[in-house]
Design goal:
By secondary structure, the protein is mainly alpha-helical. The chain is built from 4 helices and no strands. Helices cover 84% and strands 0% of the residues.
């Protein structure tokens, strides 16, 4: 963990020192590295037999979380819209 924090702070230091330069390759390199990290994460997950055997349960839980998250967001947005539009008209919230 200490190595990760040290690498992050060294990257911050290098970025601070090179902030006046225009480095056009950095955004592309970051994009490629993120795609590689995601690919290798998928490889690690695919190699794990416990994850693969429980993929159906994980999918059902993910679907449940997504649906309840959407329902909560829609209900809160609707309630907030009613409260805000009621204040604009001068009515009671």
């Amino acid at each position: 963990m200490l190595k990760v924090v040290a690498i992050m702070f060294s990257g911050i230091a290098v970025g601070f020192l090179l902030r006046k330069r225009r480095l056009r390759v950095v955004p592309h390199a970051v994009t490629v590295l993120i795609w590689l990290l995601l690919f290798f994460l998928g490889v690690e997950v695919g190699e794990n037999p416990q994850v693969i055997s429980g993929i159906q349960d994980l999918g059902i839980e993910a679907l449940w979380l997504a649906m309840t998250g959407i329902a909560g967001t829609v209900s809160f947005s609707w309630a907030l819209w009613r409260w805000v539009s009621g204040k604009k008209k001068g009515g009671k919230p």
